[in-house]
Amino acid sequence: QMQLVESGGGLVQAGGSLRLSCAASGRTFSSYTMGWFRQAPGKEREFVAAVSPNGGITNYADSVKGQFTISRDNAKNTVYLQMNRLKPEDTAVYYCAATTFFFATTGGRYNFWGQGTQVTVSS
Question: For residues 11 and 63, what is the distance between their CA atoms, to the nearest angstrom?
Answer without folding.
Answer: 20
